[in-house]
Design brief:
Layout (H helix, E strand, L loop, with lengths): L9 H6 L6 H13 L6 E2 L5 H5 L5 H23 L5 H9 L10 H9 L1 H6 L5 H17 L5 H11 L9 H15 L4 H5 L2 H6 L2 H6 L2 E2 L2 H24 E3 L9 E2 L4 E3 L8 E6 L9 H5 L4 E6 L2 H13 L4 E4 L9 E2 L7 E3 L6 E4 L9 E4 L4 H9 L7 E6 L11 H12 L4 E6 L9 H11 L7 E6 L9 E2 L8 H4 L3 H13 L9 H13 L9 H4 L9 H13 L6 H11 L4 E2 L5 E2 L17 E5 L2 H11 L4 H37 L3 H28 L14 H7 L16 H8 L5 H8 L2 E4 L5 H12 L5 E5 L12 E4 L8 H8 L12 E4 L2 H7 L7 H9 L6
Parallel strand pairs: 6-14, 6-15, 7-12, 7-13, 8-12, 13-14, 16-23, 19-21, 19-22, 20-21, 22-23
Antiparallel strand pairs: 1-2, 3-5, 4-5, 8-9, 10-11, 17-18
Helix pairs in contact: 4-5, 4-8, 5-10, 8-9, 21-24, 22-24, 26-31, 27-28
Length: 858
C-alpha cells in the first residue's frame, strides 16, 4: 500500500485527465444531483412513448397498443390464458373505439416513419420485454410448469423500476395476471428457487433503477438540514464590514463578517458502509454546498476520487507531501487566478495561492493541517467538512509512523464537521472517549455537538466464505452447541455487514429443510412469515429470515438439524479426477474455479506464495530450464544496455552543467557523435534479446490449459485468464527485478510487494486497473489502497495476527463490480473464519482510535 506522503508525480497528474466511462459519469452526475434531490432516480430503459417521442394522450396510448401490442397479447391469451381473467379483460380493450381519431397527423406520420426502427429496437423497448416475459409466464402456467414462478417474480420486481410512460394498457394486462397468480402462488415456491430467481436473474439487475445508496441519502439529509439552520443563524450574526470592531472575526466571501460563536452545530459522523457502495464518492455530493477536505492515507483512493470529481467539473486541489501552503496545487478547473498561454489561449501558469474556487481538496495525513488552514483562508469553518477516509488504517498495530500524525491532526483540528468513513468501524460503545473529546473541543455556551452513526448493510450480492477444505461456511455449519450458535447469531444481527458473506444457495437449503420438517414454531414457517406480497422476497430479507429462524429454533431440535446439514454439505470444487479440492491449486487443477474476473491473494510473505505457484505450475523441467536460460541471457544483455545508457546520461548531465555557451556547442557535436555510436551498440544488443513466452498449456485457463486440468477436460467459458500484451511482457522482461517475478508474469500473476523497482509496480497497478492480471499476490498492507475489482480472494494462513477489522477490509476487496457474478473468499485457516463471527476479546483498532483521536497528549 502506498502510504508515502509525497507530492504527486507527473504520471499521477496525467491520469487525472483520463475521462471516466459514460456509465461512471452517469453515476457521478446522479450523486452530485442527489445532494439536493436525495430521491433522484435514473433508469435509461425506454418505453415505446419515450422511443418515438410523441405527445402523450389517452388516444395515442390506445393507438400504440392496438398497433404494436394488441395482436401479440391476444394471440398469447387465446392460446394459453383462456382459463384466466385475462380472456375477458382484453375484450374490454379490444372493444374500445378507434384510437386515431384525435391523434395529430404529424404523430401518425412520425410513427409510420419509425416503423422499421421500432422493429429493430424491440429488444430495447420495455413493453416488448414485458410481453415476452408475459408469454413465458402464461406458457408455463398453462403447462403447469412451476417455472412460471420465475417469470411472475421477475415481472413483479421489474414493476418496481421507475420507467417513464409505460403503455397503461400493457401494464393493466400484466397486472391482471399478477393479481390472479398472487392468489395461489405461495412464498415457499419462490424461496425454494431464490438463488436462480434473485442471484442469477439477468433481468432484475439490468433494468433496476440507479439510485443513491441509503447511507448517502442519510449523510446528505443530515447536512442539508443543518445547513438550513446554519444559514438562519448566519443571518442573525452577520454585520456589514464597516461596523466591524473585533479583528478576530472572520470575513466571508460576500464581504460580511460571521461571528465565531455562531451556532454551527458541530457534527461527528461515524460512517460505515461496505466497500463498493459509493462511500468514497459521497464527498462529490456534499461538495454541492460544503467545501471538503478529503484525507486519504492511501493516495490511490484520493486520486480515484479526484479523477471522478474532475470528470464532472468539480474544482479540486491537492495537498500531498506539503510542508507549507505554497506546496498545495490546484487543478486547472479550480484556478481563479492564472496566466494564459499566448499561443494556445489556454491556462499556462496557475496561482496556487488563491483557493477561492476549490470545492474539494484531496490530501494525505501529513498535509491535513496545511490543507485545513488553506481552506479556512477562503471559507468559514461551518461550511467545511473534514472527511477522513479509512481512519482505522495502520491502527491494527501498537506503533506506526502514522500514529503521531493522526493524533496531531485530531488535536489541532479546527473544523467542526468531521466524517470518519470506513467499511469497518468499531462499535459506538467502544468509541465513547472519542465522542466526549469531540464535545469538549467544540462545545460552548450555545453549541451542542451532534454524534451521528450512519450504517448501511448492502446485501445485493452473495460472496461466500469457503474454508481450507473448499466448503462453504455459515453459522449452521460451524456450531454443534446451540448456545454457541445463538451467540453467533446475536452478533450477526448487530453486525449485518456479515450477511454479505452468507451464501444464498446454502441458506435456501437450510430454510427448505427447516420448513419441510417443521422444526420451528408455525408462525415462522415461510408461508406464514411472508404473508404480504412476493415482492418482499429479496436477498436481504431472506438472509434476515435465516438469522431469525436460527434464533428461534428449539434447543432440543438443534442436534438433529446440525447433523443433517453437516452430513449433506458438499465440497464446492472438484479436481481433475473428480476428487474434492480445496480450491487452492490455482495454476493447475483449480484455475477454472476462478471465474469472471481477477483474484487477489493476501498473505504476509508474498514472495513465498509466488515461489509456491511457480513450482505448482507443473512446467516441464526442460522447458523451465530453457526459459530461465533465456531470462538469464536477457539479463546479461540488459546489464550491458544499462551501462551504455548510463554513459549517455552522464555525458548529457556534463553538457547541461557546462556554463560556457561556445564549449557547450562544441561538446554538443562531439557528444552527439559518441552517442550515435553507443546507440548503435544498444540497437545491436537489443536484437540479440530472446523472446520469452510460455506455451499456452501452462497459462491458467487457456483452452489448452483447461483441457488438461479441468474435470473431464471441459472448457469453462467464464473461467478468467490473463490478457497481457507482448509489449508489456517485453518491458517486464527487461526490468531489473527478481527472475521469479518475470516467470509469474508469464503465468498472468502480478505481485504487490515492496520493491525498489517502481516501474514494475506502476505496470502492475495499470494491469490490475485494466483487469488484465489473472491473480495479484499482495501483503495485507495493500488492502486499504487497493481499489481494483476482484471476483475471488484468498486469505493466507500466515496472517496469524490479522485483526477482525482488517480481515473484513480484506474481504471488502471482493465483489466490488456492479454485477452479480460467482464470487468466493477462500480462507487458508479456519480459525480466521470463526474470529469473524464473534466479538473480539481485544479490539486493537478501537483502543488505538480512542488513544489517537484525543486532544490530550499521548
Amino acid at each position: 500500500m502506498d502510504l508515502t506522503q509525497n507530492k504527486l508525480t507527473r504520471a499521477e497528474w496525467e491520469s487525472l485527465e483520463v475521462p471516466v466511462s459514460a456509465n461512471e459519469r452517469t453515476i457521478l452526475d446522479m450523486i452530485s444531483t442527489g445532494y439536493n434531490n436525495p430521491d433522484v432516480c435514473i433508469n435509461e430503459t425506454q418505453s415505446l412513448f419515450s422511443f418515438i417521442k410523441i405527445d402523450i394522450s389517452n388516444d395515442a396510448e390506445l393507438f400504440l397498443y392496438k398497433t404494436y401490442f394488441e395482436s401479440t397479447i391476444s394471440k398469447i391469451v387465446n392460446k394459453y390464458g383462456k382459463d384466466t381473467p385475462l380472456y375477458e379483460y382484453i375484450k374490454t380493450i379490444t372493444t374500445k373505439s378507434t384510437a386515431n381519431k384525435h391523434i395529430k397527423k404529424s404523430d401518425i406520420m412520425r410513427i409510420k416513419n419509425l416503423e422499421d426502427n421500432i422493429n429493430v429496437n424491440k429488444p430495447f423497448i420495455y413493453e416488448f420485454l414485458l410481453i415476452e416475459l408475459f408469454d413465458k409466464l402464461l406458457q408455463n402456467l398453462y403447462k403447469n410448469n412451476k417455472q412460471y414462478s420465475f417469470y411472475l417474480y421477475t415481472i413483479i420486481q421489474l414493476n418496481k423500476a421507475n420507467i417513464k410512460n409505460i403503455n397503461n394498457h400493457v401494464m393493466n394486462v400484466i397486472n391482471v395476471i399478477v393479481v390472479h397468480m398472487n392468489e395461489f402462488v405461495k412464498s415457499s415456491e419462490i424461496i425454494s428457487k431464490a438463488y436462480d430467481f434473485i442471484e442469477l436473474n439477468k433481468f432484475i439487475l439490468k433494468y433496476e433503477d440507479k439510485t443513491l445508496f441509503s447511507h448517502q441519502k442519510q449523510i446528505f439529509n443530515m447536512f442539508k438540514d443543518d445547513n438550513h439552520k446554519i444559514e438562519l443563524n448566519r443571518k442573525a450574526h452577520v454585520r456589514p464590514m464597516s461596523l466591524l470592531e473585533d479583528e478576530d472575526e472572520d470575513e466571508d466571501n460576500n464581504g460580511y463578517c460571521v461571528d465565531d460563536n455562531i451556532n454551527i452545530y458541530p457534527k461527528l459522523i461515524m460512517y460505515t458502509a461496505p466497500t463498493g457502495t459509493g462511500k468514497t464518492l459521497t464527498p462529490i455530493g456534499l461538495s454541492e454546498e460544503y467545501r471538503i477536505i478529503f484525507v486519504c492515507a492511501a493516495r490511490h483512493i484520493g486520486m480515484a476520487l479526484a479523477k471522478s470529481a474532475i470528470s464532472i467539473g468539480k474544482k479540486v486541489a491537492f495537498a500531498f507531501g506539503c510542508d507549507t501552503s505554497s506546496d498545495i496545487r490546484l487543478h486547472y478547473f479550480a484556478a481563479k487566478d492564472y496566466t494564459k498561454n499566448k499561443r494556445t489561449g489556454g491556462i499556462w501558469k496557475v496561482d496556487n495561492g488563491n483557493g477561492t474556487k476549490v470545492e474539494i481538496i484531496v490530501c494525505d495525513a501529513k498535509s491535513y493541517l496545511t490543507a485545513m488552514h488553506y481552506m479556512l483562508a477562503f471559507n468559514h469553518k461551518s461550511k467545511i467538512i473534514s472527511y477522513l477516509d479509512e481512519p482505522t488504517i495502520a491502527l491494527d498495530c501498537d506503533d506506526h509512523p502514522l500514529h503521531k500524525i493522526i493524533h496531531n491532526n485530531w488535536k489541532l483540528n479546527l473544523i467542526p464537521n468531521v466524517i470518519l468513513s470506513c467499511a469497518t468501524l468499531p462499535e459506538m460503545d467502544e468509541l465513547q472517549p472519542i465522542f466526549g473529546d469531540f464535545r469538549n473541543k467544540f462545545n460552548n455556551n450555545i453549541n451542542t455537538s451532534i454524534i451521528h452513526s450512519v450504517t448501511s448493510y448492502d446485501c445485493k450480492k452473495s460472496i461466500p466464505i469457503l474454508n481450507k477444505d473448499g466448503m462453504c461456511m455459515l453459522p449452521h455449519y460451524m456450531y454443534e452447541n446451540y448456545t454457541d450458535l445463538y451467540r453467533c447469531v446475536q452478533y450477526c444481527m448487530l453486525n449485518k455487514t456479515l450477511l454479505r458473506y452468507f451464501d444464498l444457495r446454502e441458506i435456501i437449503d437450510f430454510i427448505k429443510y427447516i420448513n419441510e420438517e417443521k422444526l420451528i414454531d408455525e408462525s415462522y414457517l415461510i408461508d406464514n412469515y411472508y404473508t404480504s406480497t412476493i415482492s418482499d422476497i429479496t436477498m436481504y430479507s431472506l438472509k434476515d429470515y435465516y438469522l431469525l429462524i436460527l434464533s428461534h429454533i428449539e434447543h432440543d431440535n438443534w442436534t438433529q438439524i446440525y447433523q443433517h446439514m453437516k452430513g449433506k454439505r458438499k465440497y464446492r470444487f472438484y479436481g481433475k479426477r473428480d476428487v474434492p479440492s480445496s480450491g487452492v491449486l490455482i495454476t493447475t487443477s483449480d484455475a477454472y474455479t476462478l471465474t469472471d474476473g481477477p483474484t487477489i491473494y493476501l498473505v504476509e510473505d508474498a514472495h513465498k506464495i509466488g515461489t509456491f505457484y511457480i513450482q505448482q505450475s507443473k512446467i516441464d523441467a526442460d522447458i523451465f530450464n530453457k526459459l530461465m536460460q533465456k531470462i538469464s541471457f536477457n539479463n546479461d544483455i540488459n546489464d550491458k544496455i544499462d551501462k551504455y545508457e548510463r554513459i549517455i546520461s552522464a555525458k548529457e548531465d556534463k553538457l547541461n552543467d557546462d556554463e560556457s555557451l561556445s564549449k557547450k556547442s562544441y561538446d554538443n557535436d562531439k557528444v552527439s557523435n559518441e552517442t550515435i555510436t553507443i546507440l548503435d551498440e544498444i540497437t545491436k544488443l537489443q536484437k540479440k534479446l530472446h523472446s520469452v513466452s510460455l506455451n499456452p498449456i501452462y497459462i491458467p485457463n487457456t483452452s489448452f490449459h483447461q483441457t488438461k486440468w479441468t474435470p473431464k477436460g471441459i472448457v469453462h467459458d467464464n473461467s478468467f485468464m490473463s490478457h497481457i500484451d507482448d509489449e508489456t511482457s517485453k518491458t517486464i522482461m527487461l526490468l531489473n527485478v527478481d527472475d521469479k517475478l518475470k516467470i509469474l508474469l508469464l503465468l498472468g500473476i502480478g505481485m504487490f510487494v515492496d520493491t525498489p523497482n517502481m516501474k514494475y509496480m506502476e505496470i502492475m497497478k495499470r494491469l490490475a486497473d485494466e483487469q488484465k492480471l489473472f491473480i495479484i499476490i499482495a501483503s495485507t498492507d495493500y488492502i486499504y489502497g487497493t481499489n481494483y475489482q476482484f471476483c475471488h480472494g484468498f486469505i493466507g494462513k500466515d496472517l496469524t495476527t490479522i485483526t477482525q477489522q482488517k480481515t473484513l477490509q480484506a474481504m471488502g476487496r471482493i465483489g466490488r463490480n456492479n454485477v452479480q457474478q460467482d464470487y468466493t473468499i477462500r480462507f487458508r485457516d479456519d480459525k480466521m473464519i470463526y474470529a469473524l463471527f464473534a466479538k473480539p476479546e481485544v479490539n486493537i483498532e478501537s483502543n488505538n482510535m480512542c488513544r489517537l483521536f484525543n486532544c490530550d497528549d499521548e
